[in-house]
Amino acid sequence: MDGIMASNVKERNFFAVIPAAGRSTRMDSATNKQFLEVRGIPVLARTLMTFDRSHMIDGIVVVCDPSEAEAVRNLCSRYVISKLILTVDGGSTRQNSVRNALEALEGFIGRDKSESAYVLIHDGARPFLSDRVLGECVEALSEAKACICAVPVKDTIKSSDTEGFVDQTIPRERLWSVQTPQGFKFTDILEMHRKASALSVGFTDDASVAEYFGVKVRIINGDYTNIKITTREDLILGEAITRNDIK
Q1: What is the CATH number of the domain that holds 83?
Q2: Is 61:88 a contact under the CB 8 Å cutoff?
Q3: What is the span of the domain harbouring residue 236?
Q4: Which residues contact residue 240 at a Cβ distance below 8 angstroms, ignoring those fewer than 6 apart?
Q5: Handedness of CA 4, 122, 119, 80 (dihedral sign)
Q6: Which of the residue ranges 7-21, 50-64, 92-106, 215-229 would you say has the lowest mean pLDDT?
Q7: Angle between helical axes of 69-78 and 43-53 (0-180°, round to 10)
Q8: Half-sphere exposure of residue 237, counting CA atoms within 13 Å on the CB side?
Q9: Beta pairing class for 117-121 and 176-185
Q10: Overall number of domains in the chain
């Protein structure tokens, strides 16, 4: 774990936690997808630049594989990510990685200032987050205890039976495809992640943790361009997004 002191700590602090410890198995590349380039800029650098330039964000925590921590810090230096405060070792699961980051962040800002802190948790491989979505997530946390960004599902959704036949067609009017960032009051999500670590539940995202403990999660309209880079096809789509500047 490495840290650089942040400059000013405001009364209402917002921090970004960026999980970037995945192994990129679906990318079929020897290079972690976080370091693959979209029009000459690494995916992770694009992600971090969005948070770094936002006046609403006070500090950034990157969760990464220990073997890549130096590469992450070098990338932040190269692209002048001035708000990096911590790099944290990833855990065996994404859930463990996020908990590691939250606990490290608590140690950095101190328990007394944790009460006024909020956190946005965002996939390192989502490099096309818009300033609008980021800002609306921050704004939502002035009223809600938790928020996510998501887009309405476009496709017809069907469920199948155990033999692979269609079981039913699910009405899509209230279905959302969930993205990140997902925002929370810092002390709330830290406590919930600590409790969740003792459970045998496979939480698919941080909002699922909050939902499990009874927190109502506000939905913010995301962007269809806020894609997660997972496969080679996503890199092609990412090239198109940056060429047309449509985010």
Answers
A1: 3.90.550.10
A2: yes
A3: 2-244
A4: none
A5: positive
A6: 7-21
A7: 60
A8: 15
A9: antiparallel
A10: 1
pTM over 0.70: yes
In this prediction, residues 195-220 reach a mean pLDDT of 94
Pairing of strands 217-221, 146-152: parallel
Could you give the CA distance from residue 107 to residue 15 in angstroms, rounded to a whole number?
Answer: 13
Give the distance from CA 195 to its chain's centroid.
20
pLDDT in tens, 152-191: 999 999 999 999 999 999 999 999 999 999 999 999 999 9
Q: Which two tokens stand for residue 164?
A: 């692979």
Q: Which residues, in sequence order, are CB contacts of 51 under 8 Å at separation 6+?
A: 16, 18, 57, 60, 83, 120, 122, 134
Chain-centre distance of CA 44, in angstroms?
Answer: 11
DSSP 20-47: -----GGGT-SS-GGGSEETTEEHHHHH
E strands, the chain, in order = 2-3, 13-19, 37-38, 41-42, 59-64, 84-89, 117-121, 146-152, 157-160, 166-170, 176-185, 217-221
Instruction: Share the mean pLDDT of the chain.
Output: 91
Q: Give percent above pLDDT 90 in the chain.
A: 83
